[in-house]
Design brief:
The protein contains three helices and no strands. It is an all-alpha fold and about 80 residues long. Helix 1 (about 25-35) packs across helix 2. It is elongated, with a radius of gyration of 23 Å.
């Protein structure tokens, strides 16, 4: 007689609980920072980490850091 296989349902293994906020919640908050900054690109990682920290309760809600203003010559692509 063949041995019976244990089903995964009978022994699901250890349950890992995390306190990580849902991905979509972090993404939405990071996007809010992006909008508040005036759609300036290049701050995506900072926005993501800020949103994640805020949603985990590690720091109070803060407005995102403002991107430094570029000089008119830089914005026009003129080398100085």
């Amino acid at each position: 007689m063949p041995a019976k296989k244990k089903s995964a349902e009978a022994n699901p293994g250890p349950t890992v609980l995390t306190s990580q906020p849902p991905h979509h919640a972090i993404a939405l908050r990071a996007y809010e920072f992006f909008v508040q900054r005036g759609y300036n690109h290049g701050w995506d990682l900072q926005d993501w980490l800020q949103a994640e920290s805020e949603l985990l309760g590690k720091q109070p809600a803060m407005p995102p850091a403002k991107a430094p203003r570029r000089r008119k010559a830089e914005a026009a692509g003129v080398a100085s």
